[in-house]
Amino acid sequence: MITLDREGGMERTFIKEIRENDLVEGVFWVKEKSMPVSRSGAPYLRVRLADRTGEIEGRVWDGVEEFADLFVRDDFIRIKAQANSYQDRVQLNIKSIKKVGEAEVSLDEFLPSSSRDPEEMLAELAEISQGIENDHLKKLVMAFLGNKEFTLLFKRAPGAKRLHHSFLGGLLEHTLSVVHLIQKIKGYYEGINHDLLLAGGVLHDIGKVYELSYERSFDYTDVGRLVGHIVMGVEMVDKEIAQIEGFPPELAMLMKHLLLSHHGQYEWGSPTRPMTLEAQILHHLDDLDAKVKGIQEFIQKAEQGATWTDYHRMFERFFYIGEVEEG
To answer: Which domain holds residue 9?
Structure first.
């Protein structure tokens, strides 16, 4: 996709479109910045630049100290560069840098976002939630989906900092996907409280709206690091339950257990492991959606025409891309 550069009205290319030997001029977000030393002992400037379509590494070899003082990590910079290939990867040889103020850019051009419209996803999630037959659980879920302050954050928050659904609207997209998976297994297993499982699917990650920051870049808030989305989510649910007259204590306990255990293991951040059928199912469906989407996002970052991805540190393996036809 080509977009108009705000300064001078000239066209620029998004990172996903940059190819070897391209002359690149445009504004990018500085995701990482460092000043290593080359083998000859000379310092050079290394940056990782990003926009909503991807990331690319850039290096400055001349005028290093002058350019290094112009900006810091998370700034926006305008560059002129030549795209070169190094170790089978395209990177930028940057010739000039100028810092750009935040008021001069549209943040949506630099943060990746869901391919789906957030309003449509929220409406779809609310429609499915209306099918919850238990009145107490329905009131609990709709207390969140009908809260404008909450839904403004819910529609924008990413699903994670980087592992899966790491884009604006990612949290809502992930939640809706988990809910669809829950709907698909309805009636397949006996003895499952579908209303409870569905409510847990909608609410399991609500604490992430406060755990993550997503205005300039994706990172953890202070309360996100110190408390975490699982505990925050339980606190949010507990507060709403207290406002619903006659909410059964055991149902409240089972609901909170779903949130507390949905990561499945202590080492994955859950204060307790799943100890009900609904909790076990929610954990596996949540984990399935997160892992599949995370792998898909990783594959999309592979070089065009590549047969294999790079090594994935979390999964400790490469992933084969091949030329499998969809269908």
So the answer is: 2-109
